[in-house]
Structure formats: C-alpha cells, structure tokens
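Figure S7 source data.
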Amino acid sequence: MEGKSMKSESQPLNAILLTKIKEFTRDLLLNLSNGHSPIILLDRFRNHCILPDSNCFCSSNLPCGKQVLTLCKETHVHRLDVMLRVLLIVQKLLQENKHCSKRDIYYMHPSVFLDQSVVDRAINDICVLMQCSRHNLNVVSAGNGLVMGWIRFVEGKKVFDCISSPNTAHPIPVYVEEIKDIVNVADYILVVEKESVFQRLANDQFCNANRCIVISGRGYPDIPTRRFLRLLVENLHIPVYCLVDCDPYGFDILTTYKFGSMQMAYDTKHLRVPEISWLGAFPSDSEKYFVPKQCLLPLTAEDKRKIKAMLLRCYLQREVPQWRLELEMMLEKGVKFEIEALSVHALSFLTESYIPSKIHGQVNI
Ligand SMILES: [Zn+2]
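Tokens for the predicted zinc ion complex:
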C-alpha cells in the first residue's frame, strides 16, 4: 500500500520559474537597450547517438554541447520571437495557476507560429532554458492512455477505482503530479502498445485471472502515460513488461518507454522506465508459436530503413544487446507480424497462453 502526494512541490517551483522568466527577459532587454545583440545558450540533449564504440554519455542525463541562438541569424530571430511569445503565455499560466495544451498555445498566434511543431520546439526550448519539465510550465496534453487492473488512486479530488471493476478501461490522468493514495494489489504491470490488444485483454477478463495493472499508450505513448507508468514503477516496485507488435514501430515504441525519445531527451530522466522488460512479440516468436506464413508480412523498404537506423542506437548495444539481436533477426527474416496474428490458433490464445506463459516462465528480455 502506498500513498504519496507531490502537490506540495509545485507551489515553490511556480515561484522559481516566474523569477527565472523575469530574469531571462530582463537580461534580454538590458542587452538590447545597451545596443548588444543578445546571445542565448541552450543545452543540447540526446537520448542516444550512433557512436559505434558506445563510449558516449547518452545515458548520463548530461547535456552534450550547447546551441547558440543570436539575432544575427534570420531563422533564430523567428525562433526567439516564438519563444518569447510562448514564454509570455507560460508566465500568465503560472501567475494565474491555469493550465492549457500545446494546441491552445498554437491558436493564440497561428499566423506567427505557422505550425504546431514550431510551438512544440519553443516549449522544449523553454524547458531546457528553465531546467524543468513541460508540466511545470502548466502546459499539459490531453491524455491518450488507458489503465485497468488491480489499482486504485486519487488524482486531485477524483478517485480512479480500477479495483472495483478491474477489466474496465479508465483514462490515464493528465495531472500525474497530483496522484496520491495509490492502493496496489497487483503483482506486475503489463504495458501493451495498442488499444486493440488492451480491448482484447478487457474482453477476455484478463485481470480476473491475472493480478496485474494493464496500461496502453495507444501507439507512441504521450507524456502523461509515460509519467504515470514511471510513477507506478517508482512507487510500487513490481515488474513491468511491454507487449508490442513485431515490427519496427512496435520496437521503437518499446524503446520510447524504456529509453525515452530524442525529442524529449532533455527530460528523459523523468520519462524513461529502465525497469521495463520486453515480453514480446519477438521475431523468434513466429516459429516458436507457429504463426502461419500468411500472417507474416514482408518488411517494406521504409521498415528496413528504420530497422537499420535503430540498430545503430548506442543504448541497444550497451544496455540491451538481446533486444538488438532480435531486431537484427527481424531484418534477416524480412518479415513482421502483429500481436493479433497470435490469435490465429484461438481467440483467447494471447490472454490464456501467450502472456501468462511468458510471464510465469520468465520469457522476457
Ligand atoms: Zn550514445
């Protein structure tokens, strides 16, 4: 049984960020009024590199160099313009203790921002500059993730009582920092890539026979899903397994859970879940579980390109060489398959045989 509230931390951080924003803009103005062109140094972060000798610092959370923004460069002028506009919005959010989404911010100046990705980059720049996470800026995304199983918790004043009906999907809360009073009676956490697999488990009443918590990020997991998973792993100290399609996208999603993403590399230490084990589907599963040939799809040229690029990631060689071997095998076999292909034997094969046998037989890497 665990209970934890993190809300008390948010108030002073609010004040610290407001001071940092004030100091940053004041320095900028001072420089400009003195006739100097301001220089802004942004730490660069990466969650992996492609150095073959693996002698890098990608897993250390340390920045790797700095990016210099100046008003002498046309592209930087626009980037700074966007950053300052977003900073102003963030300042208001923090002052009024309100929240909004990246999309809301985009629609405040669509003719200046031109594209959502420009706003996303500005938010990332501000997080790097202020040394904080995105939710600290009161910028949140509408949660996309789902949870069910043997857990109960409170978010703010809302009770998520999954235990009373463990095979019913609940949305993963957006304000992860407000989660408290976690009651857990599960033995492990199962993360599934796709909603269709999550629904299969729900329909098969998977959680009746298995004391677990099931989570799905419905494809590439969003920030709340990854923070929620991270919170559970940190607090509950139970094993966590990941089930993805046997294709390059499934593998990339698996690595996003375990190692974080390049885009959010500055915040990897708060988002990655190094404890996660890969439960399947392995390329070697197609033979082991007799997946018929007609269920195996040939890899496209794009799939092959993606696999070759992923094989170069430094963390695979350094931290999970067995994952890398399976990925190499995918490329050698030249085929991919979906989790659902395992249902070719029986609709309940996944829930009654495949997952339990892998978990109880410790067939995960
Ligand atoms: Zn590296």
